[in-house]
Amino acid sequence: MRRRGFLAATGAGTLALAGCGGGSGSDDGGGGGSPKKGGRLRAAFAGGGASETLDPHLANLFADVARAKALFDKLADYGADLSARPRLAEKWEPNKALDRWRITLREATFHDGRPVTARDVLYSYRRIADPKRAFRAKASLEPIDLDASRATGARSLEFVLKRPTAEFPNVLAAFGAYIVPEGATGFDTAPVGSGPFRFVSFTPGRSAVFRRYDDYWEGAPHLDEVEFLVANEESARINALLGGQIEYAHELNPTTARAHENEGRIGIVRLRGSAMQAFCMKTDRPPFDDPRVRRAFFLIADRRELVEGALSGAGEVGNDLFGKGYEYYAGGLPQREQDLGRARALLRQAGAEDLKVTLDTSPVAAGFTEAAGIFRDQAKKAGVTVEVRTGSKDSYWSDILDNGTLCCYRSGAMPIEAHLSQRLLTDSTTNATRWRHKDFDALYQQAQSTRDKTERAAVYERMQRRLYAEGGFLIWGFADWIIGTARTVKGVDTKAPANTLDWARFDKVWLA
User: Fold this and answer.
1) Residues 107-165: pLDDT tens digits?
2) What is the pTM of this model?
3) Residues 207 and 281 reside in one and the same domain
4) Which end of the chain is more exposed for a tag (fewer CB within 10 A), N or C?
5) Which of 215, 218, 197, 221 is nearest to 114 (CA)?
6) Torsion angle of C-alpha atoms 174, 178, 182, 183, degrees rounded to 10
C-alpha cells in the first residue's frame, strides 16, 4: 500500500448526492434488536472520479474495495485480529514441507447460478498474475507457482508454492484477490460475482446500486439494496448524513466526530487501531544509519502528546511496533516513554549533539502536519533541530517518502507477517526505512518454514524485538477509523479495522 500508505481517498471535486431524506431512530449503528428485512442503504465514500471501475482486481480506494466485497468473494479474508478466516475456501491444508497447499471450496454460486469451481479460482489468480497488467494483488500471489498449480476436482485444488510459506492463508486473503468466473473480462456493465449483492447499475464517479442476492452462501443480506455514492470532501459526507441524504458516511475526521458524538442526531462508530501513525527514519543514510540516533529519536517522542494533538485523542499510543492487538503482536515489551536525558546521552555517544534534520510531511493524511509540528517541539527539548518541510499531496507517497531522510508515515491494517515481508526484508518493494539485514531476512524465512504456530510466533517475536531496539519506524500511535451512520442503521461492526472482513459488511447491516 505504498502509494497511499492506506487505501487513501483522492479526487478534487465533490459530486452531488442523490436520494430522498431518511428517517431517524434512537440507537447507534452498533446494535439495535433483531435484524429487519428490506430497504436501501446509501453509503458515501471518497471516490476516484470517472476512471472508477468495478473490476475487483483493480480495487485500490476504500470505495473500490467496499463495492468489490459486496459483489465478489475471496478464498479468505482477515478477521479483526488480522488472522486469515475461511471464505470461499472451506478449508486449507499444507503438506509437511509447507510448499503445497490443498484447498477445498465451499458450495457457492455466482449470481448467474453457476457454481464456483477450482477452475474459476485458477483463472482469477492467473489473471491477477498477468505480467502485462498492474493488478493490486499480483505481488501477494508471487509465492504461488501458478503453472504447476492445478484443479484436483470441481471444488478442490492444489497450490504449488515456490518456497515454504506457513502463512499462505494470508495470500488467499490478500487485498484484491477476488474470485471471478472463468473467462470474465468486462466488469463495468454487468459484472457477475459470488458476493452478497448482485449488480444493478454503475455510473463511474457517482453511484453504484447493488441488490440482495438471495442465494448467497452465507445467507441473504438483510437489505434489499445498497447504493454507493461518491463524496470526496469529508464536509460533504457529514452534511449529507445530517441532511438525511445518506445513511452511512465513511471516513470522518476526529474533530467532526467529537462535534456530533453526543448530539444524538447521528451515530459515530470508531474502529479502534485502524491506522498506524509513525515517523519513518531511513536507516541507510546519515544520521539514521547510526542505531544510537534512532534509539534517541524513540526516546524523544512523547506519544501521548502526539495522539492528543495530532489525532485529537482519537487513537492510542504506539510502541514502535506495527499491528497493536493483531495476531503475533509482541505485546509484552515495555511501553516506551519519553526520556530526554537518555536521548541526549545517546546523541552525544553518536557525535550528534547539535543534530539538525529535515522532517518531510504533507496534508496527504490526517494528522501528518500536526504530528510534524509537535515532534519538532519535542525534539528541541533534546537539543535537536527539526526543520519541518511540507510537500505536495500528489507526490508525497511516490517521491517525497522515497527521497526524504525523516518522513511522516501511516499504514492501514494488514497482518504482521505481511508488514514484515512487504516492508522490512532486503528485497521488499515498499521498504520505506531501508531496513536491509540478511540475518533478519533469515528469521523471516525460518518463520515461514515453521509449521508449529507457537514456535513460529516465537520467531516473529524475535524479529519484533530487533525492530523495537533499532528499527526505522518510530510508531507513535494508532488512529481510530471513524464512520458516521444514521440512527436507523444497525449491525455495523464496531471492532473490525478498516480493510478487514467485517469492515463495510453491508450484508450484515439493516435499517430499523
Assistant:
1) 999 999 999 999 999 999 999 999 999 898 998 999 999 999 999 999 999 999 999 99
2) 0.87
3) no
4) C
5) 215
6) -100
